[in-house]
Amino acid sequence: MADLRFSFAETFLCSAFAACFAEFCTIPLDTAKVRLQLQKKAVGDEVNFPKYSGLLGTLATIAREERLSALWKGIVAGLHRQCIYGGLRIGLYEPVKTLLVGADYVGDIPLYQKIIAALLTGAIAITVANPTDLVKVRLQAERKLPAGIARRYYGTLDAYRTIVREEGLAALWTGLGPNIARNAIVNAAELASYDQVKQTILKIPGFSDNILTHLLAGLGAGFFAVCIGSPIDVVKSRMMGDTAYKNTLDCFSRTLKNEGFLAFYKGFVPNFSRLASWNVVMFLTLEQAKKAFRGEIYYD
């Protein structure tokens, strides 16, 4: 398979751009996913009809009650996150893969080596980017408030300042445990599966390294990512959006006890819709950005 050789800086720039573009296009689906994940089941005698129901219903409810722009809540923090996290996790993937197998390795890299590389880069990247993820979730979780009640945050920078002032600097890394687990696993599912699916497709007669191949590989990456990462994603969103939980285990056990196992797949449809579309947009953009960046110069 032809190989585009890029430096870390070149890959970082292309990856950050592609990730930010995908984030802007798909953040309404992510906002719907977060609202569904934070919605709790009624306990005991409490009668509480769910405010949000389904992907389209949640999108419509948010747009109707809070205006269409509310679907892009947290977009600035989301772009901060993708610029750092997206650039690092993808930019480091190839160097880490090469480090694992050796610079002189010839042939297709084994799938398990791709998974290990993606796990490592996902963990490293989100450790750096966790504050941006926290602020993004907090802003997405905010609903429209009645008149006279002050908002908790007045924008992205105010959210950073308020969290540090009221909860301490370390609070910016709230939920780091499940976030590392979630992003390392999802990154492995996305990058390793995209890498593997693309490699497999290119061996099929009639297929080439074109937009159709990138589209199919991106859909595969999104599907594997949401199936594997959804439970951890729910725990992460709840810990970041609600300070009532003591730690990861407490959040997991209380959710399981009060709402059952299926609660960990709350927002599955919007999560899949978001991750599938995000991966398709991101990988298509990344592949085209790389070609544009280097003038489609291939080295055999």
TrEMBL record:
Keyword Signal: yes
Membrane-topology descriptor: Multi-pass membrane protein
Solcar repeats: 10-99, 109-200, 209-292
UniProt subcellular location: Mitochondrion inner membrane
GO cellular component, one term: mitochondrial inner membrane
Signal peptide: 1-22
Major subcellular location class: mitochondrion
Superkingdom, natural source: Eukaryota
PROSITE patterns, sorted: SOLCAR (PS50920)
Keywords: Membrane, Mitochondrion, Mitochondrion inner membrane, Repeat, Signal, Stress response, Transmembrane, Transmembrane helix, Transport
GO terms, molecular function: amino acid transmembrane transporter activity
Family: Belongs to the mitochondrial carrier (TC 2.A.29) family.
Protein name from the UniProt record: Mitochondrial uncoupling protein 2
Organism this protein belongs to: Hibiscus syriacus
